[in-house]
Amino acid sequence: xxxxxxxxxxxxxxEPLPKAHFRLETSEGVxxxxxxxxxxxxxxxxxPFWLAIWTVGGMAAFYDLLANPGSPRLFLTIWLIGWAIGxxxxxxxxxxxxxxxxxxxVTNDALVKGWRVLGFGREKRYDxxxxxxxxxxxxxxxxxxxxxxxxxxxxxxxxxxxWNYGASTVYAASGLSEGEAEMILVELQKRLxxxxx
Length: 197
Prior knowledge:
Blueprint: E1 23-27, E2 30-36, H1 41-67, H2 74-99, E3 101-106, E4 110-117, E5 120-127, E6 131-136, H3 143-146, E7 161-165, E8 168-172, H4 178-191
Antiparallel strand pairs: 1-2, 2-3, 3-4, 4-5, 6-7, 7-8
């Protein structure tokens, strides 16, 4: 016998369907699949604090480098190069968490994968006739298990949606589950020209 308490489901009721973390939009007449970056609260809270301290440290080192031009400063110069790389990496990761999004669309001859963050973006067009194995798979550990949304402009980016292009494998939809990637795959296949289905 089913007992109903306040806020509980009746026995035999189904689990609610989770909402997908992507949406469909039309931009300039082209339907696009928009995958917003999955927010990471640790990044959103910790990185601004870290960037403030890192910026002060870098400014102090730069001032020291300029204040003593005659002495050998090779170590400090190398450190400042590393400082700049670290600052750019952290700032781009923060920007991705604030406003990043991945975009996928299909034209008559290309699968287009792009990204946008803080008003900047890039697109790559993949010739449909050269794409093989458009499918869903489990990203390598730890990318799939953690479901972290990685900025696609980083060199090592994995997602559950993938395809082979020439001798390389292209990954998309970082931070999404395999179920969400399956839904995206269905949407992409609807838009593929008949010759490429």
